[in-house]
Q: What sequence folds into this?
């Protein structure tokens, strides 16, 4: 559902970003351009990465009319989690590598255009997912993906923060990974025991469609799309990496897909490294996932204005 009420000069906007963004010339320029559009009604608060959640909660206490997360999916995830069910409207200035959440809602990656979306005042209600109390917007994953994130930072340091470099880091890690997990997945009461190098739980239809994967309809229904890759050894992982790059992965061959409203994941170990929207976290098992329906009101273009390049966001 889309709501519209143009922001006026009296309404206050708080823009929260990681202070490291101010040291990156591309992101610093983007923030500057966005702040010029938002004008004097907007206040910029740059904080350390670990302080973003606290800054968002203080912005709620300070009763800003709009609270904006400026950064990649990790920053946006953190601010969104702090705003969940707060009654405060949420804006996004996408500054990351992929920006799946913003792109899924049709929010432009151009900083001026993204700021203009906020000023236009139109909003859409979105649901948020959580795992063990941690809100996420796009996905969580276990196994190989946390290893990809570690390798990605090394690739970024050498080649810069480019999407091609990120895809290469993923393919490289796929070919090297040799540590499968033994998991028990409860999906709507159904028990599934698996040995897998990768379990991926999706909440972004846009991300799935970007990689040519099934499951977008499941997400559109407000459910979790759970992908489990079979343990096929190094040769199998090489083929999966190649198919992922070519967007030709196929259900039944490269992964099994389960669509569920409620998901619990148990493991042999007491803790697992979980990647939430690109951020690595250590969590105690079992992992319990749930969806908060219509928990956040986000500034976004009307659904009918979102073209073929921006499929609908997670329900």
A:
């Amino acid at each position: 559902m889309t709501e519209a009420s143009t922001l006026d000069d009296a309404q206050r906007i708080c823009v929260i970003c990681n202070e490291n963004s101010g040291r990156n010339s591309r992101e610093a320029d983007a923030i500057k351009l966005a702040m010029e559009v938002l004008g004097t009604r907007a206040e910029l608060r740059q904080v350390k990465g670990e302080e973003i959640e606290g800054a968002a909660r203080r912005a709620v206490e300070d009763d800003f009319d709009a609270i904006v997360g400026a950064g990649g999916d990790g920053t946006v995830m953190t601010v969104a989690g702090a705003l969940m069910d707060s009654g405060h409207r949420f804006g996004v200035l996408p500054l990351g590598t992929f920006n799946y959440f913003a792109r899924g809602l049709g929010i432009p990656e151009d900083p001026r255009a993204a700021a203009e979306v906020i000023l236009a005042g139109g909003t859409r209600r979105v649901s948020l997912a959580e795992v063990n109390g941690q809100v996420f917007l796009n996905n969580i994953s276990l196994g190989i993906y946390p290893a990809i994130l570690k390798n990605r930072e090394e690739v970024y340091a050498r080649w810069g923060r480019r999407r091609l470099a990120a895809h290469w880091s993923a393919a490289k890690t796929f070919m090297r990974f040799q540590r499968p997990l033994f998991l028990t997945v409860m999906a709507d009461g159904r028990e599934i025991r698996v040995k897998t190098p990768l379990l991926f739980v999706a909440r972004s239809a846009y991300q799935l469609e970007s990689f040519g994967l099934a499951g977008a309809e499941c997400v559109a229904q407000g459910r979790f799309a759970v992908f489990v890759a079979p343990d096929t050894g190094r040769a199998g992982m090489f083929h999966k990496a190649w198919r992922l790059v070519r967007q030709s992965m196929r259900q039944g061959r490269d992964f099994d897909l389960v669509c569920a409203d409620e998901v619990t994941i148990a493991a042999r170990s007491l803790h697992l490294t979980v990647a939430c929207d690109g951020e690595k976290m250590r969590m105690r098992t079992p992992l319990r996932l749930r969806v908060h329906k219509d928990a956040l009101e986000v500034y976004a273009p009307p659904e009918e204005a979102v073209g073929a390049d921006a499929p609908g966001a997670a329900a």
